Protein 1
Amino acid sequence: MATASMAKKTVRINGCVASAQAAKYSDVDVITAYPIRPYTATMMALAQMVANGELDAEYIVADSEHSQLSIAHGAASSGARVFTGSSGVGVHYAYELYSPISGSRMPVQMMIADRTLDPPGDFGSEHTDALATRDMGWLMGWSCDAQEAFDNHLIAYRIGEDPRVLLPQMVCQDGFFVSHITTDVALPDSGQVKEFLPPYKHPYPLDPRHPVSHGPQIMPEQGPPLQLERARAMEGAMTVIEEAHEEFARVFGRRYDPWIEEFMTDGADVVFFMQGGHAVTARHAIRHMRERGAKVGLVRLRTIRPYPTDRVMASLSRFKVVGVVETNMGLGSVSSGGSLYAEACAALYESDKRPLVLSFMAGMGGEAIVLKEFYWMTNKLLEAQKRGKIEKRTHWVGFEE
Amino acid sequence: MSTKGTHIPDWLQVPFAGITPAPSQTKGQDLFPTGNWRAIRPVYRDKMPPCNNACGTNEKIQGYLDLVKRGKYLDAYALIKEDMPFPSVTGRVCYHPCEQACNRGQYDEAISIRAVERFLGDLGQALPKDVVQPGPPNGKKVAVVGSGPAGHSAAYQLARLGYEVTILEKSAKAGGLNRGGIPDWVLPKEVLDREIERLQELGVTIKTNVEVGKDVTWDDLRTKYDACVLAVGLTEPNSVRAEGEDKDGVLYGLPFLREIGMGTSTVKLGPRVAVIGGGNTAIDCAREALRQGAEEVTMITVESGKHEMPAVPEDLHDMLEEGVELMHGLAMTAVLGNGKVDALQLHPARFTGAINASPIDVDRETAPAKVAVDNVIIAVGQHAAIKWLPDEFKTERGTIKIDRFGRLGDTMFFAAGDIVQAGTGRQLMVVNAVGDGKRVAFNLDKAVRGEPQYERMAGGDVITDLNRMNMTYFPHFPRVQQAMLEPSSRKRTQDEVILSFSEEQAQEEANRCFSCGTCNACDNCYLVCPEPCIVRLDRSNGLYKILVDYCKGCRVCIEECPTGCLEGVPELDFDTGVVRMDTAFAITPGLHGRQAAELKTVADRTKEI
């Protein structure tokens, strides 16, 4: 299993390759692949690494995403550290496996490079593919750039494989905006990774020398205890997530708030609440608007499962208006727009100081959210602040005056 | 934290994420308790095979055939000996009602049970020491009057129960009807002698030349013994009340055979012999007559044809093969001759009612036929000699009056065998006498202990319907025939007519047994169960167990049970061992806790491998 020792260095790579590098640094045992753009580039990079002898892993090309995740499940059951991934409809083709994998508490890691769901075929990024699986018991969060993606993969393994947690993880990044944009990524020393990420050991792996049954049929009354255990694991993960980020900061020198990133929220009246790569554009827009006097900031959700309800409430309650940038489809949902709105509002319900909340359908179909649109959205937030009430719950950006 | 303060009760404690110990042969799939899907529960319930039921002494026939199949001859012999003291005798002489009842007879040919019994009986005879042991002595003394089949059987069982048994036998040699009624060429003397030795080895004392009413009295029996079994049989031949029965050359069937059997016969038969009667004794007399030198033997019966004769069909067949002639529908009305028989007068005759159980109507209007003979042997049944018996215990049939348990009123006298069965409709056969002797022995024991007695020794559901069995498992296969001496060579000698089975033949024949309604540990249920939820410790003991937590009642084992011993019983008939349908969501408590504990030992157990 020895992977060649790697010295600390900075490379210029895109999000997909950053994910592949993270898998290599994590010394994964089994990779299961099935091609679909845009995440394919990750598997291409890993295939090269395995072929070159840089990474000693079983690389299995499945005949569909369903098989891909099934193989991942089986491999994890035998005690392997497993890396897999997909995009868009591929994520959904494997949907059946998400609950069994988390239910059997197998810490499979899945890289998602978002892709808009059909119809029609569209390569652009929308978060709906992964977000639709958010309640299946997987730890889930979005990275906003290649470096964060690399880091999140390592952190996610550490959390998911912790014996107190043992849950699978979806480490998501926007298709194109992260997956295919090349940036500088600091790769660590392999010794740092060894220190941060201990070898994986499942307590009851499938092993002919230690026979056990995984996933047998159960009686109805045996279901609730299993679900309760899974819920406990998900909630119990919150402490582990915080510990892991603390440890990551100690070992690698990069500190992330595990739950939310706040950008220029000091003195802000209105904030954007969003996930993923568009936050990079949002930061530019906010800096510009601040210069022009608008008291606007950004609250970026880094981990959506487990959902940091109290942190979100504490953070958003400090502002007058919250604008949720969805980048996902929630057809017929609470806001009749995306699904993030409901998550934000629900967290705020018990707050003494509830801000106004409205939601923007922006970046749909994988379109860029350009600066001009952030200005437009900021105006909507400021108008609501001035008016003391929202005009409507959801705005379709680019389709309204 | 929504899970804060939650508590999973111990009995629902789940091993990690539903991971359970691996399914095993003995435990099925532990966390797969599908038992509450079940509407029908398979239950192993052995039924009475028809052979066991038909047997006069309810031998465990299916049981010993199964043991023979497996080559466990000694076990088979021991099993037979539970009910039958002398399988070597009945293996030769029995009229085998078991074979008539055998279900295989409806399918191809009945199992040759008697031949297998003889194989086992002869095996027992060859043993230096018998497998049967006397019971621990209980200090009670029992007299058994008569050493025929019923007396032998009663003495045997009483000895096994721990009684000090004394047989009182009128003749000079023990054996009763076994010796005096069955010719040597059916039952060789050595075989019977050996069985009587076996009885003595059990501690039974046999006093010969002791006749009740002459050498001992009723009061002697009553006072000297704790209890007494009267098995005196029917010793006195019936007359046909024909004129001239007192002429020289007129013989009676049973005394004729008895004297030959006892070795005291001085009879010299002429060349032409007639036998009067159509039953088994008459047949034995006719065949014995050939062996005693008769040239022509004719059997004269009131019965109108062979089909009416109360005889074992094979014996009748063998007799005809030996050249005996039959004359039907005739009664002997006079023995003609001057002091010595030289002809018989015969009139047409028929039974007025049921065959053999009604007065004979003799047509004296028709001119009689006249048949020239040198001897006539009258074999038309026998009756008892019980003058010594207090009148209160006599029936109008001239037999002993008993209650339904075989007891004479409230005395400690019991009676068994022909002396009570005659005229009851029960066939007067060796095996029926043995069964009656056994029944009376056990009832005597019950009476001594003051416990309730049994009217019948065996009972239950007799499986006679092949639809209750799965016949696809039984290919057609012909009955193994016993070899016989040729009629021409055998009819002048005392050599045994029917020959023994070899070991291979006994096995082959036992293999044909369906094991009707009775588990014979064939392992089929164990193999066909789609779960592994039928378990057993080891093959061939038949002790299968259904894991009711897992059996979902698919009925596959029931349908595929070749013998029909597996039955489907509605689940709601049970109130234990099951996840009831009306409490479908309750589960066997402790299951999960047990699994969790076992899971922890998986690694330890692995070290042992």
Protein 2
Amino acid sequence: MVRAVAVSARVSAVLALLFFPAILSAQDWVKTGTSLGVEKVRLAVPEFKPSTADPQNAALLKTFNDTLWNDLDVSGVVELVSKSFYPLQTPGQPPEVNFLAWNAPPPNAAMLAFGNLGVTNGRLTVQGWLYDVKNIQSPQILGKQYGDAASDAAARMMAHKFADEIIFRLGGGIQGIAESQIYFVSDRTGHKEIWAMDYDGSNQHQITHLNSIALSPRISPDGSRIAFSALTKTGWEIMMYSLDLNRAVGFPHMGGTNLSPAWSGDGLKLAFSSSRGGEPEIYVADASGANLHRMTTAKGPDVSPVWNRKTNAQIAFVSGRTGLPQIYTMEADGTNQQRMTDQGYAVSPNWSPNGQFLTLAWVRKYGPGEPGSSDLYLMDIASKQWVQLTHDGGRNDFPSWSPDGRHVVFQSNRSGSLEIWSMLADGSKVQQLTFTGRNTQPNWSWK
Amino acid sequence: MKKQSKWILLVVALCAAMTLSACKKKVAPPPPPPPPAPPAPTASISVNPTSIQAGQSAALTWQTTNATDVSIDGIGAVQPNGSQSVSPTDSTTYHLTAKGAGGSQETTARLTVTQAPPPPPPPTPSVTDEDLFNQNIKDVYFDYDKSDIRADQQASVQADVQFLGQHSNISITIEGHCDERGSTEYNLALGDQRASAVKNVLTAAGVSAGRIKTISYGKEKPFCTESNEACWQQNRRGHLVYQK
């Protein structure tokens, strides 16, 4: 345990320095220590106020306020001041801000996000400000106005945009993720199809209608195409769906069993597993399917490749060449294959946006009499040191990094059914995103 | 006493003599009438309907009177009155002979048989190739996370080789299946290896590779959904499927 803590401390220090520049983790097993001298900004977010008398305001305000609060809460960048500490009078406009009511205890806020929302003749307008309430002379950090035809989706999108502006400024200049998408597999229609949703679980909608089995959706870096694997008349093939055209587009059938596509960070290449030559091996092709090259030759299944999306120079993958599946890395030309995990059953590697970490699903102690829970781990690639991210039992699998590198989305049966959850990359702020049917294999968009 | 008996005998004799002499000239009485001549038998026979298709049947009905010996050609002795179902394959004349003390009587009924349309083709033979396949082919089971053929599965493999050798017209699909443990993508790759392992052992034994398709289902289509070893073993298999 001492070793694990030490490992945790080291990885977490790296994590905090490179990765969570403004985060102090609250969890003991990710022991970052207070010596780093960083604290999350205390941000107060009173509910936005109606600016007109339109009857649509109430419902849109609820959507906007809930979405904004959740975006900021799960961002990992700020500490939201509990609403129970707020003064009775909250501002909807800059002149209404009472600085002393916010910057002193009980709220003791450093920042205040406030604004108003109103519908006029069917058009929704939102005004939002971010104030540094400790700086009374020059408090405004951000002032934004958004307008669109009034709808629930528009109110949600405006909240996402405003949240991302705040997170960008308070989170060390890293773009927020409130407008990102998560692609996943759901069987709620009776067949496993590819679905999409907003990063917070709203707006879930079906993408494919194959009435077969579609698995392993992987969104392209530019967000225009989804590569996935589907059971076709000729077996498991890689398929390509265009989100611009809203239909499947051509991709050559490879023969054999073709699984688990993965985009290179530049969007030019795809790696995937194919048994076209006999055994399931890792292949790399152009995004068009041309120029196919085999990268592995080992006995045992090789599957689930993922690129180092920062360098495009390495690929991590799963191999059963020594028995139970383990995580390996190799250069993108297939050389220098290295085993990363030392024991158990390790699958589903996913490379962090900064190129330094893998998340993976790992049953470290595997075999008869073992509990067999599959947890998510974070591994520092250079040192192979790891920390455990989930501790709640059940089977957790298919972690996928958010574009800001602060979050991980994954599948878990901890609720009794296979659903999609998200959390901060230190294991905190765990949130269930899906509730209907069995939902698996989430894949977070690249931006 | 003796004198009285002599006297009685004398009187009786005298009376008798007188009686006999008095009847001398009378005609002899007629003989008793002969018994009446026996009546002639009657007979009728009919068939209903009078025309059938081959394979159908008709009711043959007959009545006789005053007959002691009734027979129908082709059927034999029958009761004086009766009915019988007949289903000849060709047109037939039923010839009834009723014999009695008063003679004999004959009568006929004709049943016309038309040939049925050709019988429908016999139903699909009760045992098809697919039935034979399902009776004889054995699935091949695997150890956890393994795709090599277990020693205890050799008998199943041999049975499959023998059957496929005897039925060279049959093509098959080998499905590779895995238990619910483990991850979706790895299990699909593992299932692919299991299907290939069964294919390889069949082709090595002489089954043409062109007759064998393989597909992996990973853990997507389990045979059994409980979370215990008995169920998991059911799901770790190469499943041989008849290919229509």
